């Protein structure tokens, strides 16, 4: 009992060392050599509040450690096959309706989605198809207080042919859907590669952004001085907008002890 009390005290002290302006989380897939439970233990110790891209089957494990699913995954078919192709709409509707229930019942908020690849499709057709498909689930998401977030990827390096690869297209989708329960997952790494001008984009368009991901450019590794992005400045810009959601670390650690890299990233972003 004494050991448990000491551990709880240590965790509370660790949390108090963070400034509280950013709700920190981390993407589970970046730590393949750690079990989800091991990552939960480390996340709690460092002072994170959640873990990204966890599926509903693992919600109980997050709750065991007092963490949230800051971005739930598992409803999608694939990133390449999604809402911009109407042939997938029925399957996607069924999957997303179920996952909206899972997220709502657990008391969480965010559920990820993707545009799909172009496959020769023009942007306007893709927009229209995404609007049609997403409208099939958005009224239910609104009823259940769940936010559907589409992630922006770069198509230059990591996701060739992905349709939602620029903020102009993504924001137009938000405008056409006109729902408080549809937002964008602004991935700083991806958008630095695709279009740059990150801080101006955040300042001008933050009302459409419901979640942020980080990683170093180039390479998708640590976010320290080994890469080109000024993450303290970016985080300050995010905080200045009044943002109250999550910032999830999504870089691939290169250190032998990956948690050292995660702790460093949290320190960098805790402005």
Which CATH first-tier class would you pick? Alpha Beta
List low-confidence stretches: 1-10
What average pLDDT do the residues reach? Answer: 95
Enter the CATH topology name: TIM Barrel
**H-E order:** HEHEHEHEHEHEHHEHEH
Question: Strand portion, in percent?
Answer: 5-15%
Radius of gyration: 18 Å
Shape: globular
Question: What proportion of the residues is helical, as a percent range?
Answer: 40-55%
CATH architecture assignment: Alpha-Beta Barrel
Per CATH, the superfamily is Divalent-metal-dependent TIM barrel enzymes
How is this fold's topology laid out?
Layout: H1 2-17, E1 23-27, H2 36-46, E2 50-54, H3 59-64, E3 68-72, H4 89-106, E4 110-113, H5 123-143, E5 147-151, H6 167-177, E6 182-187, H7 188-194, H8 198-205, E7 209-214, H9 231-240, E8 246-249, H10 258-269
Parallel strand pairs: 1-2, 1-8, 2-3, 4-5, 5-6, 6-7, 7-8
Helix pairs in contact: 4-5, 5-6, 8-9
Q: What would a concise description of this structure say?
A:
Helix content is 44%, strand content 15%. It is an alpha/beta fold and 271 residues long.
Q: Mind explaining what this structure looks like?
A:
The chain is of the alpha/beta class and 271 residues long. It has a single domain, classed as Divalent-metal-dependent TIM barrel enzymes (TIM Barrel), CATH 3.20.20.150. 44% of the residues lie in helices and 15% in strands. It has an eight-stranded parallel beta sheet. α5 links the parallel β4 (110-113) and β5 (147-151). α4 runs parallel beside α5 (123-143), α5 crosses α6 and α8 packs parallel to α9. It is globular and about 45 Å long.
């Amino acid at each position: 009992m004494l050991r448990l009390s000491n551990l709880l005290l240590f965790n509370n002290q660790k949390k108090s060392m963070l400034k509280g302006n950013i709700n920190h989380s981390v993407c589970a897939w970046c730590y393949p050599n750690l079990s989800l439970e091991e990552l939960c233990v480390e996340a709690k110790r460092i002072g994170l509040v959640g873990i990204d891209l966890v599926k509903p089957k693992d919600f109980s494990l997050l709750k065991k450690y007092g963490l949230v699913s800051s971005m739930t995954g598992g409803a999608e078919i694939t990133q390449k096959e999604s809402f911009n192709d109407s042939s997938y709409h029925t399957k996607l509707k069924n999957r997303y309706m179920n996952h909206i229930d899972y997220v709502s019942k657990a008391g969480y908020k965010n559920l990820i989605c993707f545009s799909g690849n172009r496959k020769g499709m023009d942007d306007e057709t893709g927009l229209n198809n995404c609007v049609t498909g997403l409208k099939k689930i958005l009224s239910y998401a609104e009823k259940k207080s769940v936010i559907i977030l589409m992630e922006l990827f770069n198509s230059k390096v990591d996701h060739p042919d992905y349709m939602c690869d620029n903020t102009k297209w993504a924001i137009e989708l938000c405008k056409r859907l006109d729902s408080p329960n549809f937002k964008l997952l602004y991935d700083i790494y991806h958008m630095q590669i695709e279009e740059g001008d990150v801080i101006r984009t955040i300042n001008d368009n933050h009302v459409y952004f419901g979640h942020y991901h980080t990683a170093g450019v180039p390479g998708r590794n640590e976010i320290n001085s080994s890469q080109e992005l000024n993450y303290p400045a970016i985080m300050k810009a995010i905080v200045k907008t009044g943002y109250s959601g999550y910032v999830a670390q999504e870089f691939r650690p290169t250190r032998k002890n990956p948690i050292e890299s995660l702790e460093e990233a949290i320190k960098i972003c805790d402005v």
